[in-house]
Every structure is written in structure tokens, then in C-alpha cells.
Amino acid sequence: MSWDEKLIKQAKKIVKLYPQKRSALGPLLHLAQSKDGYISDDSVSVISELVGITEVQVKSVSTFYSMYKQEPTGKYLLSVCKSISCEINNSNSIIDVVKDFTGLNNNETDEEGLFTFEAVECIGACGGAPAIQVNYETVEGLSTENTLNLCEWLKNETPDLVVADELQNKFGGTKSFDWAIADNSGTTGSVPGFQTLNTTKDKK
Amino acid sequence: MSDNVKINVNGLQIESEPNKLLIEACEDSGIHIPRFCWHKRLDPVGMCRMCLVEIETPRGKMLVPSCTTEVSDEMVVDTESEIVKKAQEGVLEFLLINHPLDCPICDKAGECPLQDQTMAYGPGESRFVEEKRHFEKPIPISEIILLDRERCILCARCTRFSDEISGDPLIEFIQRGNKTEVNTFPNEPFKSYFSGNTVQICPVGALTSTSYRFKARPWDLKSTRSTCNGCSMGCSVELNSSQNKMLRILGVDNEHTNQGWLCDRGRYNFEYLNSDQRIKAPLKKTESDREETTLQEVYSDLSKIIEDRSNKITFLLGSNLTNEEFTSFNEFSNKLGNHDNSIYLNEDILFKGFFDENIENAKIEDLNKSDAIIIWAEDLKETLPVLYLRVRQAVKNGVKLVIFGHTNSTLADIADVYYSGETVSNNFEIVKDISKLKEIKEFIKDKNVTAILGKASPHQSDQSIEKLFTYLKDNANLKLLNAFNGGNSFGAFQTLGSVKGNREFSSEVSKETTDLLFVVGADPIGKSIFSSNIKNIINEIPTVVALDLFMHETSELADYIVPTSSTLGEKEGTFTNIEFRTSRIDKLIPSPGQALSDWEFISGLSNFCKFEGMSESLTDLNNKSFDSFDLDTKPTFDNLDKPRNLDGIINTSVPNITTTDESIEFSDSFFVGKKLYGDKVTERHSKSISLLGSSQFIEGNESTFEKYKLNSGKCILVQENIEITVSYKINPSLPDGLIFFPKNRRNMNKLDFSKNIQILPSHSMEVLNVN
Ligand code: SF4
Ligand code: SF4
Ligand code: FES
Ligand code: FES
Predict the structure, then answer these.
(1) Fewer CB within 10 Å: N-end or C-end of chain A?
(2) Quick one: three-class SS letters along B390-433?
(3) What is the share, in percent, of chain B residues with pLDDT greater than 70?
């Protein structure tokens, strides 16, 4: 088993939360992702044993959801929204800027492992379209110029931690409302979900 | 029936049981709704939308998938409206968007539901000009199955089969949306005993088998319905041949037995029929070698021995013969007079079984209807694979399952109770008071119980299994399947006057009792645990005649070898399965060279000896086989060929097994059993599957192997001057100290299981080599 004891212990605790073992599959995949930044085949084998289903069944679930990464991502995961609200607010050109700057196509990671680019469906920031997420930290009301600035800043400063508020202040425009995330570990966090309103104050 | 609901389909009133799926209710009334994903033996998923129909709802007419919609009273359905037609065209257009349309090089073309339904319901013209998706084609997903992902229409039949029916979900959908594909986990091939079924139910040519790939076009195939004789399940099959070569075996949906499924050995163990190693002419031993001879000469030589009435003649028959052939040997042996007890069946696990008028013989479908199933027998998955599927199905329907160890551990996962080490000793005795086993009491007391009982291993004593039987009989409403598994052994039990097995053969037969021995379709030296004993016996008997398809360890020793036809597709007859259902064995292809059916040989020999009163034809033998049965409709050819009897005819005639009771000497630390795939001569000559049974191994639990200090994955079995290197596999369900030997794997017949076998770590081998 390629998981250390501590992780296995944590995993077993999660499994116990559910009346049926296989219900723990989702959270365990998050755990795997927080370990490596993606779901490795090794982790799939470990999980398959923990929940008592075959490896390919685990793989089937993990490949179905695009936020379970199948490959390691770069230090910064740039997710530009391509859904309808953003599209009518010119997300196409935002996407072009990111593509040009990074030289990446959809779902590609550069050789240095700095950037991963993906064009994604609605990230729930329609009110502030067009929007981007950097390691799941949302920036709204982008312009092409600011997008370029954002990319350059990331490349030059390479901050270890990106925080929505800071990004929004530096590069954002009109904001829909107070979106934030409780856990700042980005793609390497076990729960890349969102929490609504009034969370920014408790950050850091 | 008054409980039925009435529905209106296309203006016609039809009746259906309530809660039936609409697609099925329509089907039963002769209204066909096109479909890809729905399969009557699988749970519905509504994956493909081909079965859309219009129904009237309070909100007006609505399109619904008929495979996930249950009928309700007064439902009004239209399966042919303009909207439905448009929907069907649309669905097909979508399916064809990503379909490569490489029909000219596709095995399925000509019998392809996608082709047929596009023809019948499709739009007729394509509007798609964009690039289709591409995958490497095909990729092997196991040694016998290939997958062409471009052709897959994502109906989930294969994945549902392996999850719901066979319980080994090693294939699944990977990715999502446009990228979805069926695949296995890397380095975890689709190693299932039942994988061939997915090829059969795949509605396109996405799954193909190595043995049939590019071999024929379906419209060139000749076909006939027959019965698989690979084990005692007697699955209904369709044999396909082209240019007199057997090319494919398909499962036929026989409600009572296999319900359409086959195991992979039954499906793929046929290529040997076309092997150039088949014996094609009679052979006779000479001083130094053997030479071709004629049938007439064999008859004449043998008749000289037979005519001397002081000569004693013995038969050792394989269990793959037809009922008619067993009858013919029985007739012949009776004619020889002095030989009431001279027929032996090539089976290691033969004992009296549980047959008499007071024991109700279960039907396979009783499994589904009982409250609990009790199993104590050889591993069903390895020896009666499709019965294993039926047990799984019953458990899925809520039937309780109780298993006594140590063989059926593959069912332990779904069993309610699995009695292992603490309850069942290493020599297969129940060491506790059965009446005190809590679960057993709870599950069987005055309940309907179907038991599958047989010896779990040859050295299990008769008393041990009888003890369980008696308890069940006294406490439950018991029906029983005797778990013998060798081909047509149930036919042998009924058509031979009396039956004994290899154990009796090796203790009773010698040159004193036998001057002439017929070994028919049997390789006991290669495959029996009494191998060395039987070899000595055969060596000392003055004249041995082998009737067989191939040269093997036993036929090699014979003085005369007569080539015979295979029961698979080369002869006609009948077969009787585990529930005493007799069904038809049919002929599709000619036998090679001078090969003839065993009954034809016996009939020819009797004629030569001028025996009178013998059955003259196959029909006579067929009638005679069932003469004494107390049945209105006997399983004669005439009756079996009637459409209503195609699934076979059940009888209740009580067979006569006359085995001795003495138990076999055996070390407490071993037991032997069969694996589905082995090293039998027919398997060796079937290219596609020949490697599946080639690995040699033993099984035990971790602590057992620790005691032997094994750690390299390999070990050496040592007995006298025999050394065999095998791998060892951890099987945690085995009790401490008990090791399993698969007797049908190569070289296992060299071991004598009544004596001690040493197990040494294999690095000692290297040490030996270095010195
Ligand atoms: S491989 Fe065949 S059976 Fe499996 S999902 Fe694809 S089309 Fe269906
Ligand atoms: S289960 Fe037995 S009868 Fe059925 S296909 Fe397999 S070998 Fe043949
Ligand atoms: S469409 Fe872009 S955030 Fe909703
Ligand atoms: S057959 Fe009904 S959806 Fe496929």
C-alpha cells in the first residue's frame, strides 16, 4: 500500500461514516487528491480495497468527475469559465489571453509544472462574469488586460498561496458577491468546494 | 388472470402482469420495440433511448423509454407514431455520429442490432461531416476478448453483466460524455470465467473474441442447437460452423438451465475439433511402435478375445459420452454375460449420492424459490460454473445462502454464513454439533431449503456429508441437487446398470479380473488422483483398447486405438444434466478421417461377433435408454425435437451408483479439486484457451505458508524422486494447515496424495543448482 498509516487511518474513519462502504468513495478520492494533487492508480488500488469494489469501478467514478484530476496539475490551475454568462461577457478573449500566455491548450500542463489551463463550465460567478479560478480561488469581472497581468504576476511572484480576496483586489473587476473558500489549499485540498458569504474574515 | 392490467398499444388491447416493463409486455404480445441496452436478463438502465414510445399522460402525450416504464392499468401507448419515429431516427443519428461504420471488417456485420435497426428505423441519410472520435482498435482486454472502443455505443450491457450476473466487474465506463469508453483498469485484465457472454450480448462489434475474429460471416454459418457437455449443467448452446469447421458456440436462453449464459470453457473449448493432432485412423501397437490398421482388423482381433468366454472384459468410460452410448456399452457388457459389474466411470469423486424415492430431486429453478440454499460440494465456480451464476441470482433475489468450507470460498462474499476452520475440519468433517449451529437453525428450520451436496474433496468421507444431509432432511423441507459435475454423469447413472468410479477401478481391477479393457474417452492417467495405480493396472492388462480423439497419457498405452467423434458437434444423442433434464446433442460437422461414434464402434464389433438382440440404430438406443422411465413424454428424439420440448425433458428415475464406502487415505494437510481451466488434452489443443490452464500453483492461507518458510512466490513439491516447481497463492479462506492442489493442472497427476508431499521454498533449488 502506498498510503502511509496516518492517511489510512483517516480513510478508515471516513469509511466508518457511511452505512455502505462504497458511499465513502467520493471523500476518499478527495483524500487521494490531497495526497498527490491528482488521483494516482496506486491510490485507486488502495481505495478499491478500502471500500470493497474493484479498481476499475473506482477509476470509473474518478474519471467521471473532472475535478478529480487524472494527472498532476501545475502549481497554478487556471480554470477559465466558458459557460453562457461568461461567454456573452467575452470569456473567449480571456481564454485566448490565457492560452497565449501559457502556450497551453485545454487540459494541458506546461513542462515546468507552473500552469495548468482548463476551460470549465459555470463556476457560479455569473454575476461577475467573466470569471476565472486560480487553484479554485475565484476572480470576477476580468478584463483581457487584467488577465494578462494576473498571469504575469503569478509567473513572476509565484506565491505559495493564492487567496481570492487578494486576487480580486489586484486583478478583479465587478464582483457579484462575497464568494470565498474556507480551505485555501487549492487543488491539493481535500474539499475544493465553496462556502457562501462571510467567510473571508476568518481566512488565513 | 384477473390481476392482470390491460393496456392499449397501437389501438390493440393487450394484457400484462402488473409491474412488467412496457417493452417486455409489448414483446410478449408480439409488438417489437427496438432497443440496444435493454436485455431481459439484466436490470434496465435506460441508457440508449432507442426504445422511446409515446404514452398518454395527464399532461398530454409524452415520450418515455419503454424499458424503464412499468405498465399500469389503462395505459395508452403508441409505438409507431410520427413522434416516435422521429425520436428513433434522432437516437440512431446520435449513435451513428461516433460509430466508425467499419461494417466490412466487423465480425458483427450481418447479425448486428445497430445495422438492423438503422436499416429499419434509421434516418436513411447521414448529415454528419465532422471528424469522428478515434481509438486504437482493437485492444485486448483479456487473453480471449478484444475491445474496439470506436464501435461501442455505451449501452452498458457488458458492464452490467459483469457486475450483476457474474459478480466480477473488471470492466467499466471510464471518462464521461463524448470521451466515455469501456475499459479495464491498467494491468488488471478482464479475467472472468464468463467474459464470453459480454461478446454475445454486445449489440455491436465492440467486443469480439479471439477465437472467432475474422473467421466467418454470419450468413455463411451453419448452425444447430445442442447441449454443452463440459459439465453437468447441460447449458443450451447453438453451434456454428462454416466449411465443416466449428467456429463458434453461443448460449441459448433456456429458462430452466443457463438462461442464455455460458462459461468461457464451455464457449471456447472447441478449437480442438479442428486440430491436426486428432487421431484419424485406427492404430495397433507393434513391437516397437504402432501402425495404422483398419477397423475390420481391430474387430477381428478383438472378436477373438471376446469369443473366448473365459476372458473377462472391463470398461472404463469417460463421462462425456451420450446417453445412447452409455446404453450401448451397457447392452454390450450385458451380452458378454459374466460382467454385471464391469463398467467404471472415469470420475474421482463418485459416491452413492442422495438418490432415492424419498428424496426430492431439486430443479435448478428451485434455487430461486427456496428460503435458503445450503452448499457443501466441490467449488461450483470451477466445476459447475453456470450453476454458480444461478446461485448468485437466487441470492440477489433474497434467498439465504449457507456454505460449508473449504471449497466454495468464491461465494463467501455473498453468503449469509460461511463455515470455515472452526466448524469444518481439515479433512472435511463438521466438528460441531450441527443442531447447535445458530444460523443453520435459523435459516432452515421448517423452511424450504435447496441443498447442493457432493463431496468437497475426494477424501471427504461419505459419513461426513451424510451427517449434514440427514440433519437437513429431518429439519427442513428439503430439495436436493447432487453436485456431481463430470459431463453427462447423470446420464451415466441412469443408463448404465450400475456405476462405479476410479477409486473402485483402482482397487478392484487387475489382470486377474480383466483380460480386455476398453478405455473410452478417458484419460485417468493424466487426470485422476489415482493415476499411478491406474497406470500400473493398465500396463499389466493383456489387451487395452482406447477409443479417443487424441493421444494422451492413457491412450498412449493402449494396444489398439480407435479414433472417435467428439460429443461436441460430431454426433447425435442426448445428455442428462444435474436436475435430470435430458436434452438433445446434435451433429453439425463431420468427424475427421475414419473417426466414428463410440456406439457405432460397439455396434460394429457386436455385428462382427454375431451378437444378437443388440440395438441396431441410434434411434433404437435412444428409445432403449429411456424405456423403463415412468414418464408420459419420454426424452426420445421424436419428443425432444418437438418445439415445446427444446429445453429438455425432466425425469425422476432413480439411478444406481454402487460405489464402495471405504474412504481414501489422505494426508490431513492436502485436498485436491478441479480448476475450470486445466491441462486436458482438448484444452491443450484449443488455441485460444490453451494457456489459461497452464499455470501451476497451490493455495493455502498466509500462516500455513509461513510455516513452510515460503517467501519467493515459488515453491517446490517433492515426493520421492519427483520435484515440481509451482507458485503458491494466498487464499485467506482456507483454514490453517490445509493446502489445495488443482489436480487438472500439469504434472499434478505425478503426485500421490495418499503419501506425504514435502513443500520446500524454491531458493533451495537455486542452492542445489549452484552446488
Ligand atoms: S462494449 Fe458493447 S456491450 Fe459494452 S457498452 Fe459498448 S456496445 Fe455495450
Ligand atoms: S457451465 Fe458447464 S454446461 Fe454450461 S457452458 Fe460451462 S461447461 Fe458447458
Ligand atoms: S457562466 Fe461563468 S461563472 Fe457562470
Ligand atoms: S432499450 Fe430502453 S433506453 Fe435502451
Answers:
(1) C
(2) HHHHHHHCCCEEEEECCCCHHHHHHCCEEECCCCECCCCCECCC
(3) 98
